[in-house]
Amino acid sequence: MDYKQVLENLYDIIASEENDGAIATYIPELAKVDANNFGVCLLSTKNKEYGVGNWQTKFSIQSISKVLSLSIAYQIFGDKIWERVDVEPSGTPFNSLVQLESDAGIPRNPFMNSGAMVICDMLVSYYENPKEDFLAAIRELCSSSEIIYSEAVAKSEASVGYRNKALCNFIKSFGNIENEPEEVLDFYFHICAIEMSCQELSKVFMFLANPNFTTSKGTKVLNLSKTKRVNAIMQTCGFYDESGEFSFRVGLPGKSGVGGGIVAVYPGKYCITVWSPKLNEKGNSYRGMKFLEAFTTETEQSIF
Description:
Helix content: 40-55%
Order of helices and strands: HEEEHHHHEHHHEHHHEEEH
Strand order of the largest sheet: 2-1-8-7-6
Distance between the termini: 18 Å
CATH superfamily of the largest domain: DD-peptidase/beta-lactamase superfamily
Number of strands: 8
CATH topology of the largest domain: Beta-lactamase
Largest sheet: 5 strands, antiparallel
Number of domains: 2
């Protein structure tokens, strides 16, 4: 498969078409991003890398980081995490409070904001210095010391994060947040404010695509069983109330973020990252969704 040619052809086609949607202006710092940015990077399990467009430009990964926090927590705590967060699709927006009342403070899945906060609470309890220790773990995955938090984005999110504050306090009222909500929220806002490029994201997510992946220190991240389960949650819950649509059109496990990034994984073959800041009505990258559907259609490669 000539991935380079396919990527370049599809990129040119989609870049020439309308760039629909809107930037996530409800986070003031994200509103400053150039809406015309568009980048793609594919990294194969054979270590072949292909990039086009703004594939080396850093952007705010936002909710894509929830896969990383989940994976690290899963590595640390094992199946105990499922006592505090479920693995079911929600069918509701990413910041919904609706189901928490009926579910007694147990979030439907770890990729909803509420579920990610519970995972963050676990890591805050575990780490001596949560923000520093988590960033070190991500740098080890990517074999790069250049991964950083954007303090401007974290501060911007905190300044308007009223619903997230409500979610965290509501879960606390059920006893499913153990630490002080302010500390959990500060950690949560920071992990969402990590900046990476498509190139870096494709590298950092290779542990979900390559069964032989080891970190820069030579250690495994997750065993095959846990990797399967994280990929399964990405497949069913990675795009909130558009997860079924992504599965139907693209056919890969994936995760989106309101910074306009999407990471998708074909276990055993590749990891592909697309970034385009304009979002559709569900909060997923308009061009990213379009590109990945075209890519799996053109290559005839999906997990189905």
